[in-house]
Design a protein that fits this description.
This protein has no helices and 11 strands. With about 140 residues, the protein is an all-beta fold. Strands 1, 7, 8, 9, 10 and 11 form a 6-stranded mixed sheet that branches. Strands 2-6-5-3-4 form a 5-stranded antiparallel sheet, with no helix packed on it. The radius of gyration is 14 Å and the shape is globular.
């Protein structure tokens, strides 16, 4: 499933950017958290600032452009959460991390991450988040 843009608090439409290349030899999945590294989109590492979320799946290759939904102020995203939830994985947690696969929120890591938790749906194992530590905004 990955991360999916839901709405913007200020009514702004989703903002996409499609002219930047992905890192060579790196496959990226739709909904995956990405960051700009050396001028190219790359999978977001734990604890790193997030630039946005991939809108397409690309295979590893050379000079492939990647369309990305930017993570901006006020943007709300929905994503699954994985891991055994930490006691601090609650609405209002403001340093939750992205999982290693970049497609979900790591509920067991609530320190040093880029995400703020706004809502948790335990029936579906999903949550709504904002990106607190972001690039390009």
């Amino acid at each position: 499933m990955g991360f999916r843009w839901v709405f913007n608090d200020y009514g702004a439409p989703e903002s996409r950017i499609a002219h930047i290349f992905a890192t060579n030899s790196e496959a990226i999945a739709r909904g995956e958290a990405v960051s700009l590294v050396n001028g190219r989109w790359s999978k977001t590492a734990n604890g790193a600032a997030i630039g946005g979320f991939a809108n397409q799946t690309i295979t590893a290759g050379t000079d492939k452009k990647l369309e990305v939904t930017l993570a901006r102020e006020g943007d709300n995203f929905e994503a699954p959460y994985t891991g055994t939830p930490d006691a601090g994985f609650l609405v209002g947690a403001n340093t939750v991390d992205v999982s290693a696969d970049g497609l979900s929120v790591l509920s067991s890591d609530v320190t040093g991450g880029a995400l703020v938790v706004l809502d948790i749906n335990t029936n579906k194992s999903t949550c709504r988040v904002k990106v607190k530590n972001r690039q390009l905004s």
